[in-house]
Design brief:
Blueprint: E1 13-16, E2 21-23, E3 31-36, H1 43-54, H2 56-61, E4 64-70, H3 74-84, E5 90-92, H4 97-101, E6 105-110, E7 113-118, E8 121-125, E9 131-135, H5 143-148
Parallel strand pairs: 3-4, 4-5
Antiparallel strand pairs: 1-2, 1-5, 3-8, 6-7, 8-9
Length: 149
């Protein structure tokens, strides 16, 4: 089942880069920019994370909390955050529960090989936990403009 605008966001509870439990409930009454990305410290994912980092004040002014998610582990996330001074948490979805619940774990192909991976997708979730908007065609280097524009 594919999620759509207006749907309730799937409930989640997972660990961030510091091992702290983070859940959808933590964002009740706040807007959440929940973005799924394929892999820490790769070119597109770095461009996207740095764009969100640099745009965080504008995103917060618009009312958004930012949360990134990939299937990398906590150690990888911490290294990625420290290397690029990221100013928002990253969720380590190592058991794939979130990527499956949000429908972003799909078959992909590169150089003629098919494999399962995260399809880069951003969910904008309102104060009541409903999905306001889904961005599937992400412009990594200018993602904040897509969100705020």
């Amino acid at each position: 089942m594919k999620l759509q605008s207006g749907d309730k966001a799937p409930a989640f509870s997972a660990k961030d880069q510091n091992g702290n439990q983070v859940s959808l409930e933590d964002f009740k009454g706040k807007k959440l920019l929940l973005y799924f990305y394929p892999k820490d410290d790769t070119s597109g994912c770095t461009a996207q994370a740095c764009n969100l980092r640099d745009s965080l004040p504008a995103l917060q002014t618009a009312g958004y909390e930012v949360l990134g998610v990939s299937v990398d582990d906590e150690k990888s996330h911490l290294k990625f955050i420290n290397k690029y001074q990221l100013n928002f948490p990253l969720i380590a979805d190592t058991d794939h529960k979130m990527v499956e619940a949000f429908g972003v774990w799909k078959e992909k192909s590169m150089y003629g090989k098919t494999y399962m991976g995260i399809v880069r997708t951003t969910f904008l979730i309102d104060e009541n936990g409903s999905i306001e908007r889904i961005i599937e065609k992400v412009t990594t280097a200018d993602h904040a403009t897509q969100i705020l524009g």
